[in-house]
Fold this sequence. Notes:
By secondary structure, the protein is of the alpha+beta class. It is 24% helix and 23% strand. The strands form two sheets. It has a six-stranded mixed beta sheet with strand order 2-8-4-7-6-5. Strands 1-3 form a two-stranded antiparallel ribbon. It is globular. The chain starts with a helix and ends with a strand.
Amino acid sequence: GTLADILGPAVGSSLNTKPIEIKVAGRTDRGVSAIGQVCRVRTWKEIPNIETYVQDLVNRDETRLHVSNVEQVGNDFHPSFGAVSRSYVYLIDLEDDENRIAPSLVPKLDRMLRELEGKELDYFALSHGKVKTETTVCTLLHARASTVEFVGNKCCDNAAQTTKQALCFELVGNRFLRREVRLLVGTALREAHRDDCDDQALLKILESKDRRKRSRAAPPDGLIFVDAKV
């Protein structure tokens, strides 16, 4: 919406009062962050050096948006259908007492995720709502869990930035279903807390195609859309 507000008056049609339509490579739920995205905008005006014009127009606007590259593409280009992969990370602050995740769970989580890596699997059990796609089959090209360090927020201007430990889920897939990542994270955490944790626990849930066997979705605020490859 912010991008449409910036570009609409500059590249849209004066005869059309509706906002310009922007297609993107992947959607995010409310509360999810994004540090990378691929967007397509159809222009209605002849603008010299339009790549530079659009990039400068967005980047000088006082928003948190930043355009890293602009290219002209053919009429058949669609960022969603043309994307070969999408990348997400999910971060959980391990030093937050409310999370109660022991570092010893990280190797269990990693082993469960690696069992899914590179396999073409039906993710219906980890989908949400009415399925609107022709298939629920997806392939995770990269699925890992590890402990990472991140810079925490400063409490005041004079305070030094602090480094914290976080649990990081890294997920790269050819496609993702609605709420799939958050359901995968929530279910993986539930299974890892079990004493009899099985490395193939997630794989077995997917093979069951039974949504009742999954956990509730992890909160949206830990999820970050990283980028898409087109």
